[in-house]
Write a structure and sequence with these properties.
Elements lengths: L17 E11 L4 E9 L3 E7 H7 L12 E10 L5 E17 L2 E11 L3 H12 L1 E2 L1
Antiparallel strand pairs: 1-2, 1-4, 1-7, 2-3, 3-6, 4-5, 5-6
């Protein structure tokens, strides 16, 4: 199974997904910082993968019985634009599911809750000009 395909059965997407590979910085609402990789994105959310220790730091109290409670994240990543620039996007998102994809690799499904600054326009630009549907 490809990383981009993880969690397809767990999500209720309203927007089409596009494959990508964006290194990302993630900050939890508790102030924990980790790095990950966004492997697919849409106008409503994204999927991030990272290693086990990073996910344990981000979700220290995560248990199967509280998966229905979203975990708030601030996510920052760089994308190309149609004007040949690379811009930093910052979004607030809820982590709505976490799933192990390899022995020490986890995927997180995130739903956007707020696009900061002009992130929505920039993401739309990226998807229109560069997006490769899954």
């Amino acid at each position: 199974m490809k990383l981009e395909e993880v969690g397809q059965d767990l999500e209720k997407r309203t927007e089409p997904r596009f494959q990508c590979r964006f290194p990302t910085k993630i900050i939890s609402d508790q102030g924990d910082h980790i790095e990950g990789l966004i492997v697919n994105i849409s106008l409503s959310g994204m999927q991030i993968v990272s290693n086990g220790p990073a996910m344990a730091a981000l979700f220290p109290n995560f248990k199967r019985d509280n998966q229905s409670k979203p975990i708030n994240l601030l996510v920052e990543f760089v994308i190309p634009t149609s004007s040949n620039e690379e811009v930093t996007i910052k979004v607030h998102a809820n982590a709505v599911w976490v799933r192990r994809v390899q022995r020490d690799m986890f995927a997180v499904g995130c739903e956007f809750t707020e696009m900061l600054d002009d992130a929505g326009e920039l993401l739309t630009d990226y998807i229109y000009y560069f997006g490769k549907p899954l």
